[in-house]
Each structure stands twice: as C-alpha cells, then as structure tokens.
Amino acid sequence: MEQSSNRYLAEAPIGGLMLKFAVPCTLSLLVSSLYNIVDQIFIGWGIGYLGNGATNVVFPITVIALAIALMIGDGCAAYLSICQGKRDTESANRSVGSAVTLLVLSGVVLAVLLAFLRDPILYAFGATENNYTYAVDYFNVIVIGIPFYVVTNGLNSVIRADGSPRFAMLSTLLGCVMNLVLDPIAIFVLHWGVTGAALATIAGQIASTILGVCYLRRPKSFRLTVKSFCIRAQLARRILPLGVSSFLTQLSIVIIMGVM
3 Cβ partners below 8 Å, 6+ apart? Predict the structure, then answer.
C-alpha cells in the first residue's frame, strides 16, 4: 500500500513534526497519570486512608503491565518507523499484527500470573493486616483489566508512529474522562467502595482499547489481514529489543516502589 497519507513525515519541517507529536504525547502521559490520582482523591474522600493505602499497594502491578505494553508497543512503533522509511509495507503489516497478538497474549498471561500470585505480591508491596481486605478487593478487579491496559498502551505507541498522535491522545483522554465520571458514582452513589473505583478504572481502559482497535481498521501506513496476526519469531526478535529501554525505565519505578 502506498504510504501517501503520512508522506508528510518525510517532507515536513522537523521542528513542526516534533511539536505535532510531542505535545499530544506529553498530554497523553499526563492524562494517564490522572487514573491513579483520580482514584486516590475519590477513595480518600469516600473510604479513607486505608483505601488509599490499598490502591498504592496495587499500583505497582499496573506499572509492570505498562512496562510490558511499552516494550512491545514502543518496539513495534520504532520498527514501523523503520519500515516506513524503507517503504517496506509488507514488514510493516506483519510487525503491527504480530505486536497486537503479543500484546493480547502477554496481557492475558500477566493477568493469570498476578491472580495466582496475589498475596505474595500484595505483601511484597506493603499490604498490612489493616488494608489487606481493601487491597484484595481493588486487586481482584484491576487484574481483570490488565489485558485491556496492556493492549491500549501498546496500541497507542503504534498509533502515534502511524502518524496519528492526536488519536492516541483522544483514546487516553476518553478512558480518563470515563474514570472521572464513574468514580464518584461507584463510590458515593452505589457505595461500592474500592471495588467501584477499580471498576471505573477498567471501564475507562476497555473504552480506550475499543477505540484503539477501531483505529486498526483504517490506519495510514499499514494494512492488517488475518495472516498479519501470526507471531513471527524473526519479527519479534527485531521488535522487542527496540522496546527494552522503555521496559527498563518502567521496571525501575517498580523496583524503587518495592524498596520503599
């Protein structure tokens, strides 16, 4: 497929391109951080400090999920950019399809592992006998949303590399707005406590994932078919090393939180 729709990536002034991509990317990161902040505010008002402590105990697992998502997503985004420069549309198609499959599988596998290792993980990150019940309630729901969280964050990296940073920002913003609206309803109206806060969070993540998947139907520089989603070891060996730096950056945050 001819990459005419995003040819401007090769022809536009570099300064303008940096601004066009940097601003939405920065805003997306700021909006993403609001997920935890919004939960903390409403849980603090509606439940108290034990609820805040419980969510802080669970928070590192979302960072682990983000590390995996960015390793795959940023790696694919970098490789997609290389393919765009080489006009290698076939490799671009296969790399994105493989990355999507890897995101789904890694999200599901991570969720299953976390579910089996729930108590050791919670105690490792500071759960106490006072906030353990709250932590379990929050954890059990957040784990269900881990596959969606992995997929949406990975896809956003690919969408930005495809020349649509504003769409990636919109996807993140949609999830955050839903969380902002549903949090007070779940906590103060329905009285679901930390479980309600977690449900509001994964509802936003699911909405963002749906929007990202919809984007894959009409991308700019690649086209997906059923065969595209087959994982190819050769492509995986090229994609994953490109995302290792993103993975290590997020993993370092987890290590710091664990030590603290």
Answer: 84, 87, 89, 220, 221
- Maximum pairwise Cα distance, the chain: 60
Token code pair at residue 260: 């603290």
Radius of gyration of the chain (CA): 19
pLDDT tens digits, one per residue of 209-249:
999 999 999 898 899 989 989 988 888 999 999 999 999 99
Residue segments in the chain with a per-residue pLDDT below the cut of 70: 1-12
Q: Look at residue 2 in the predicted model and tell me its pLDDT.
A: 41
The C-alpha torsion from 258 through 154 and 206 to 140, rounded to 10°, is: -20
> Any idea which residue has 């790399």 for tokens?
95
Locate 26 and state its tokens.
């920065």
Q: 246 to each of 23, 139, 154, 232, how far by Cα in Å?
A: 19, 25, 11, 22
Short-list 30, 28, 29, 40, CA closest to 197: 40
CA distance 179 to 201: 5
Domain ranges in the chain are 35-259
Which pLDDT belongs to residue 6?
Answer: 59
86 token code pair: 């080489």
